[in-house]
Amino acid sequence: MNSFQWYRLILSFHLISIIAWMAGILYLLRLFVYHVEETETVVKNRFEIMERRLLKYITAPAMVAAFIFGVWMLALNPELLKQRWMHAKLCFVVCLVAVTMYAGSLRRQLAKGSQRRSSFFFRVLNEVPTLLMILIVLLVILRPF
User: Fold this and answer.
1) 29 contacts 122 by C-beta, under 8 angstroms
2) CA torsion through residues 101, 129, 49, 57, sign
3) What pLDDT does residue 24 have?
4) How many domains, the chain?
5) With contact defined as beta carbons under 8 Å apart, do 34 and 47 qualify?
6) CA distance 75 to 54
7) How far apart are the first and last CA of the chain?
8) Residue ranges for the chain with pLDDT beneath 70
């Protein structure tokens, strides 16, 4: 396998990881909406299990994998770090990591019953990863500066 094919393979795994990460964080935040709207304890307990498993087994590992493959690609092509669009992309990626970590904190609060935010808050928060994803994709495809 030549270096171009190797890079493309790593890029493929990076994209697969990002897709899993985005699916996980979007579903997790949507579960939070349903969780805070629920009144029955047994259903709330089921949401807690679903949220914990989703974060632990899909969302967080996919985020870590996306990071590893992204750093690997940057190591193979360090010229990317000299481009301003990449700086902007990495800033938005840091924001997406922060949202994911915040979701983990919110999950723990929901499990303890100490979270008092409304479903409207979670509906708005659910849009943040989508907006970040749109900005990241536009930067990667268009490379505007």
Assistant:
1) yes
2) negative
3) 98
4) 1
5) yes
6) 30
7) 32
8) none
